[in-house]
Design brief:
By secondary structure, this protein is α+β, with helices and mostly antiparallel strands. It has 1 helix and 2 strands; from the N terminus they run αββ. Pfam families: DUF2292 (PF10055).
């Protein structure tokens, strides 16, 4: 395994620290990090609805 560039590690750590829900995918070619993909999810609470009763 090759030594990982500190700049790349800093970017990965920064992205993880700012990610609440989602995933981070690191692509490696020939032992080198070549790409970082982030999929972020935003969650919204659904408004509560009142169900009407049938009489």
């Amino acid at each position: 395994m090759k030594k990982i560039d500190n700049n790349k590690l800093d970017i990965i750590i920064s992205k993880l620290e700012n990610l609440d829900y989602g995933s981070l995918n690191i692509t490696v070619h020939d032992g080198e990090i070549t790409q970082i993909d982030i999929t972020e999810k935003k969650r919204f609470a659904l408004p509560k609805t009142t169900k009407l009763r049938k009489s």
